[in-house]
Amino acid sequence: MTELPAVVDALPYFDKGYDESGIQEAAALLVEEEMRRYRPTKNYLEHLPSLSGPVQLKFETEIMRTEFDRMSNRLPMELLSMKRYDVPPPPAGKMGDLRAWQEAIENAHVQLAHQTTRINNLELMSEYGCNA
After folding, report:
1. pLDDT at residue 106, as a whole number
2. Is 37 among the domain residues?
3. Residue of 10, 8, 33 lying closest to 18 (CA atoms)
4. Total of domains in the chain
5. 20 in a structural domain
6. Which domain holds residue 30?
7. Which percentage of the chain shows pLDDT scores above 70?
8. Does residue 1 have a pLDDT over 90?
9. Sign of the C-alpha dihedral computed for residues 32, 37, 40 and 44 taken in this order
10. Where are the alpha helices (DSSP H) in 1-132?
11. What would the pLDDT profile of 12-22 be if each residue is shown by its tens digit?
């Protein structure tokens, strides 16, 4: 079986010299040694302070609580609403109303400008972003 190259993308930095001779092997030996010494138990995090209560409340937002409740109750996630991207014509009762048509056209222009900006941002990101 062919061994794939190691890609470390979980760190906020990238160590230099990892490709030098012997470095990968030394790191692998350190990991293997730690794995031999470590004997996980069912409750291996028991000695750590609980993240519930005051600690959890420091960062938990109302949106997070609502989402946690939804997941706890095994409810499905709401589908993404595409309504904000609609460009509807004036209501049936206002088809002859000039102002209603002007508002519909203005909405279409705003939607077009927004989508154009999004396309520009994606093009810039693909050219200059971190994965360029």
Report:
1. 95
2. yes
3. 8
4. 2
5. yes
6. 15-44
7. 84
8. no
9. negative
10. 23-37, 54-57, 62-72, 98-128
11. 565 677 778 88
